[in-house]
Automatic annotation (TrEMBL):
Pfam family, one: DnaJ
PROSITE patterns found in the cross-reference section: DNAJ_2 (PS50076)
CDD domains hit by this protein: DnaJ, MPP_superfamily
Domain J intervals: 57-127
Protein's UniProt name: J domain-containing protein
UniProt cross-references to Gene3D superfamilies, sorted A to Z: DnaJ domain, Tetratricopeptide repeat domain
Organism: Alexandrium catenella
């Protein structure tokens, strides 16, 4: 023990933990950028491809980074070999040849080490451990003399690669973008004229450079486009180096990883007067925070109060925060801007000089002697039917009154959109809103426009408006520029101060109060509030699209640093709209805030959050609950009994256990002797005594309760607890074991089972003679008698009695497996799963342990998780009948769609049920093949903001490997509101790198389902808005699709990497089709869009020149299923032929991305299949622009130039 706690061992443990963390982070990073990097636990025991030297930096030898992919390793080796290979040294002197030969040997060693994944992981681990050890010990890491690929003469490579061309130049370009780009992330696109070499001539062409900026990217961000600049006839193409920085923001500034508000908020002149406070805090465009809660400074009259807020998760990155301060006095206040009013124009009464005006809205009201002049503009105050109450803006006539908007056959007053009238709403306490001379917020202020003034709009630039003051409608500069949405202004300091200071105000108070006030003054007047989210962002059906998220500070530690005030409960909500994060949408964002935030204050604060209601003042009852003089009496005049038990339960909840014990004693006096009610009261009092440490009294009460209710497990558990807590002896421990065993026999609850396990261990140490085999035998006998509670108790006792030996792991695995089976018989699935997992951990190579786990998972309704476990057991022992039966049961159960994940998918059916009709578009794409580089680039180039309210259908063949499928779907999910997906053929491949992970294709299918559920990808039907449904149809090809030869082809298999546990020709397609049947009878109405990967009809085009292609392309059962749900449009894939045509009332659409040599454009479009109103088939650009070929006939194209 002393050796374990020595500094030497602690340093070794610290080194091992640090190396493990660093290696894990590196592996995760490599998996993101390299699809061939699949780390396995067996890598560290695999034979090395080369006996490397850990003191040589092989990455430096090749001149690559440590995160280099296998392709980069190969490229670096090839590039350097062109210079240093012995075949390239002819003509050199012997000394130079030897130098180059030595360098090439280092290159070969580095290439051999880094190309083999297991060897590379072992090399990385050894170098990392050497580095960490040197860091902790304070030494320098040893190195050897080596070649550095970074220092290779670039001229040598260029001369060997392209001898006729000189080197290009680096062109530095500075790019300034909004801070929102670094906060939200996204793509910055720069169009630049590029000189391009075409057939020996130089032409000017416009080229787009797409720069992906991740959220929280540090500044300046440098992006290189190597040899992507201007091309030249006499040298290589230039390299463009873009340096991105953010321009100064009006509201916040960067403080990596945080965002910090530039201005302090104001708590008012005296923050001690209000018990509650609320405030609005702007952030970057597209985010607005509103918070409220209890005032920590209430009744605190000391000066200098300051609140320091941190809203976690709302900084530049996920680990950052939005930080802002609020101070007492001064500070900044939000001044409201302007409000638009409808304006009408008088177009009637031209022959009479105007139209008639009355002093009331009834036609019988008194007429004014004057008429409002023809051509006058009037502001709408109230409009009811065809009666308008107006306020005149121009010309002559009564200033206000009621007029008719129309008479039979003629209009008198019409809307005038050309005349925009605004009313000044804010700035009353400041004398109005600020007027500027120019349309820049930094331009000179020329005065203030009085609150209540009316102005005419002349021009608008973003949130700034140029106005003209309407005559006799206000005071201020006759023209100028103002902010429509308002702005933050410095609150004027008060000219008067309170008479005397804090010292005078405390002069005449009692000494204890004065001392307390002085202590609080010394502690400071600073309060830090940390908001953390307690809900996920909730999407709102607004225009523009937005989400709302709620925060609280209830998880903040109750202990505050010395010198600070303890915060009180506070809550906040954040509204976010990514579509309004750009400058061009600033006006929409301000209008949205002006309309939505007031509603938010009146609803969410008081109605939606129970926690928020708790901080609001509680209403008082306006009448006595009981009539005066009658409380405490029954209707017949008898005294009403005192509710001792209820009072005692309340005392327990408060933690007043002694008082609760007294109240339970009073209740026992009123309870019938020997009744079950008395047993319950004795048990409750035993709990109180046990928590107070009075174990002897607790034991007496618990035993009395067991005598009254011998088949109630709780008092038996209390007897066991109290006996075990008494001074230890063989008698008390045996009594505890017997009591816990009895409790477990009656009800095998987790707490009593664990307690029994611990007490048996203590009894064994005291010299108990029973063995694990004895208890196991007793458990087996109990199982045979169907006494499963007794069996659980016996197996628990046996587990505690296992002696350390070579066979201990096998004993543990068998005992935990047996107890899991007993729990399964009692249908206690959580306990059964936990025990089975312990059995697998004890001996992972035992098929029976895996079968027990599979049985528990299957019984709990988790067939999709049980299937891989059974498959693993079958792989270890192909003759194990229990595992094979479990495998088949999982397949049958999964078709019923009653597993936990399947039920959760059904619950998503109602997610968009009430989304307004016509509020979303639906796009389709198929055969994405994300593992093809150009297709990954296509996904990245989809606009990240313009499709945030839309839905995408992905009709299979996302990628070959699980890792790439998840990457591709995750990227598409970030571009669209919802993504619907069904697996294709390539997803079912189990390539060599995945064979150890997935036993067969169905295991991989369930893994993809689980990943889709975690990412929010839809694989089940759901409405996307009112009366619009998207229905995925799982499918596999059927050889009967080939009418000429409807039989399986035993010589050809287009998907040889698929591994099926069932017949691939007769059962696989039935398995997928049966999975759809549970969804075919759902209540669809309106427009239904279906999609599958395989072709549903034989008359749809596919490549007939490929040998037996018809056997591997479609399944006619899909057609029957889509007709059953009354589909209006069906998206499919598989054929790699672009197509769109209406057949028998259904539009069939295929928009494949395909492989690089199948492309018809550099950036293929999406297919719009629902345009918010109707189904359609329109090619739509990935930048949200319609392509000019809207007819189905024009869309019906084929690849390779074939018709």
């Amino acid at each position: 023990e002393k050796f374990k706690n020595s500094s030497f061992m602690q340093q070794g443990q610290q080194i091992d933990e640090t190396v493990k963390t660093m290696m894990s982070q590196k592996s995760q990073e490599l998996m993101r950028c390299c699809c061939t990097w699949l780390p396995q636990d067996s890598d560290f025991t695999a034979p090395k491809s080369f006996k490397y030297d850990k003191l040589i930096d092989y990455y430096g030898v090749l001149g690559i980074q440590e995160m280099a992919t296998q392709a980069e390793v190969k490229g670096a080796y090839k590039r350097l070999s062109l210079v240093y290979h012995p075949d390239k040294t002819s003509g050199m002197d012997d000394e130079k040849k030897e130098e180059y030969a030595a360098i090439f040997i280092q290159l070969k060693n580095a290439y051999t080490t880094l190309l083999d994944n297991p060897t590379r992981r072992q090399y990385d681990h050894d170098r990392c451990k050497e580095f960490v050890t040197c860091q902790i010990m304070g030494d320098r890491m040893k190195t050897r003399d080596q070649f550095w690929g970074f220092e290779m003469n670039e001229a040598k490579y260029e001369a060997s690669a392209q001898k006729d061309l000189g080197p290009g130049i680096d062109v530095d370009l500075e790019l300034v973008c909004p801070l929102e780009r670094f906060v939200y992330g996204g793509q910055e696109t720069v169009w630049r004229n590029r000189k391009t070499r075409v057939k020996g001539e130089i032409e000017d062409r416009m080229k787009a450079y797409h720069i992906d900026v991740a959220p929280g990217t540090p500044e300046p961000f440098v992006k290189k486009f190597v040899k992507k600049g201007d091309e030249h006839l006499d040298r290589l193409a230039d390299t463009l180096i873009f340096t991105l920085t953010s321009k100064p923001h009006d509201t916040v500034e960067r403080a990596d990883p945080d965002l910090r508000c530039l201005r302090d908020c104001s708590l008012g002149e005296d923050a001690s007067l209000e018990p509650y406070l609320s405030m609005e805090v702007p952030s970057v465009l597209g985010r607005h925070l509103v918070f409220w809660g209890r005032n920590p400074f209430f009744k605190n009259r000391l000066p200098g109060k300051e609140l320091r807020f941190a809203v976690w998760g709302q900084g530049l990155r996920g680990d950052g925060a939005l930080r802002f301060n609020a101070k007492e006095g001064g500070g900044y206040v939000h001044v409201e801007g302007l409000k638009a009013h409808p304006v009408h124009k008088v177009v009637g009464g031209e022959d009479k000089g105007g139209i008639l005006v009355r002093d009331g809205k009834d036609t019988s009201a008194k007429k004014y002697p004057d008429r409002v002049k023809f051509g006058a503009f009037v502001r709408e105050v109230e409009l009811e039917g065809e009666r308008l109450f107006y306020d005149r803006l121009t010309d002559t006539g009564p200033q206000q009154g009621w007029v008719a908007t129309a008479i039979p056959g003629k209009e008198l007053v019409v809307p005038a959109p050309e005349y925009v009238c605004w009313e000044v709403m804010g700035g009353k306490e400041l004398g109005g809103i600020i007027v500027r001379a120019g349309k820049d917020t930094s331009s000179e202020q020329v005065g203030r426009l009085e609150t209540g003034s009316f102005v005419k709009q002349l021009a608008v630039d973003g949130d700034l408006m140029q106005y003209e003051l309407i005559e006799n409608k206000g005071q201020g500069p006759p023209t100028g520029w103002v902010l429509i949405g308002g702005e933050e202004e410095k609150k004027p300091e008060s000219d008067t101060t309170e008479a005397g200071g804090a010292e005078e105000s405390l002069a005449n108070v009692p000494e204890p109060i004065r001392r307390r006030a002085e202590q609080r003054a010394e502690a400071g007047q600073i309060c830090e509030v940390d908001f953390s989210p307690f809900t996920d962002p909730l999407g709102l059906f607004t225009n523009p699209g937005s989400s709302i998220q709620f925060f609280h500070n209830l998880s903040q530690p109750s202990q505050v640093p010395s010198g600070q005030i303890k915060p009180r409960p506070m809550f906040a909500c954040l509204i976010t709209s990514m579509s309004c994060s750009s400058e061009e949408n600033k006006a929409d964002w301000n209008n949205f805030k002006a309309s939505f935030v007031p509603v938010l204050k009146e609803t969410c604060f008081k109605m939606f959050l129970r926690a928020a209601r708790n901080v609001l003042p509680r209403p008082l009852c306006n009448a006595p609950v009981f009539p005066e003089g009658e409380y405490g009496q029954e209707s017949d005049g008898a005294s009403r009994p005192v509710p001792w038990e209820r009072l005692a339960d309340s005392a327990v909840m408060r933690g007043d256990l002694w008082y609760a014990a007294v109240l339970y004693s009073n209740a026992l006096q009123d309870a019938p002797e020997g009744s079950e009610a008395a047993a319950v009261l004795l048990s409750k009092r035993a709990d109180c005594y046990a928590n107070l440490g009075e174990n002897g009294a607790s034991l007496v009460d618990a035993k009395a309760a067991t005598e009254l209710m011998p088949k109630w497990e709780k008092p038996w558990g209390q007897v066991g607890y109290a006996s075990a807590a008494l001074p230890e002896s063989a008698e008390t421990l045996q009594e505890s074991v017997d009591a816990y065993s009895r409790a477990v026999e009656l009800q095998p609850q987790g707490g009593d089972v664990e307690a029994l396990h611990g007490v048996v261990g203590r009894l064994m140490a005291a010299g108990d003679a029973k063995t694990a085999d004895d208890e196991k035998k007793r458990g087996n006998e109990a199982v045979a008698k169907a006494e499963f509670g007794v069996a659980v108790a016996a197996y628990t006792s046996a587990v505690s009695r296992v002696q350390p030996s070579e066979e201990a792991s096998l004993q543990y695995a068998l005992l935990f497996g047996n107890r899991s089976a007993a729990f399964a018989q009692l249908k206690m699935w959580d306990s059964a799963i936990a025990d089975a997992q312990k059995g697998v951990e004890a001996k992972n190579d035992l098929p029976k342990a895996h079968a027990r786990l599979g049985t528990a998972l299957l019984g709990s309704g988790q067939c999709e998780k049980a299937y891989p476990v059974f498959a693993h057991a079958v792989k270890m022992d192909g003759t194990f009948d229990l595992a094979r039966e479990g495998l088949n049961s999982c397949l049958v159960e999964s078709l019923r769609m009653m597993s936990w994940p399947a039920k959760a998918r059904k619950n998503r059916f109602n997610m968009d049920m009430w989304r307004p009709k016509g509020s979303t578009r639906v796009f389709g794409v198929a055969d994405v093949h994300f593992d093809v580089r150009c297709n990954e680039e296509w996904v990245h180039n989809i606009d990240g903001l313009k499709f945030q309210d839309d839905v995408l259908i992905v009709a299979g063949d996302m990628a070959d490997t699980f890792h790439q499928v998840c990457r591709g779907l995750g990227m598409l999910k970030s571009k669209f509101r919802r993504v619907f997906y069904t697996p294709g053929c390539h997803e079912m491949w189990v390539p060599v790198p995945e064979m150890t992970t997935y036993q067969d294709s169905i295991v991989k299918l369930y893994a993809i389902f689980e990943a889709c559920d975690a990412m929010g990808i839809d694989i089940a039907p759901a409405p996307v808005c009112q009366e619009t449904y998207v229905v995925p149809l799982f499918s596999w090809y059927n050889c009967v699709f080939d009418e000429k030869d409807p039989f399986p082809d035993t010589d050809v298999d287009q998907n040889p990497f698929c591994k099926w546990p069932i017949d691939k020709d007769e059962q696989v397609w039935k398995f997928f089709s049966t999975m759809n049947e549970q969804y075919l009878n759902l209540p669809y109405h309106g427009t239904v869009l279906t999609f599958s990967h395989n072709l549903p009809r034989r008359d749809l085009p596919f490549w007939t020149h490929i040998y037996h292609q018809a056997k591997f392309i479609g399944c006619t059962e899909i057609e029957d299923q889509l007709r059953k749900v009354n589909s209006k449009c069906h998206v499919y894939g598989r054929s790699h032929r672009r197509f769109g045509r209406e057949i028998d009332g259904v539009i069939y659409v295929n928009m494949p991305l395909g492989k690089e040599d199948e492309r018809m454009e550099d950036f293929p479009p999406l297919m719009l299949v629902h345009d918010r109103e109707n189904v359609c088939a329109k090619e739509w650009g990935i930048n949200d622009e319609e392509i000019a070929n809207p007819t189905l006939a024009q869309i019906e194209k084929t690849h390779y130039g074939m018709k």
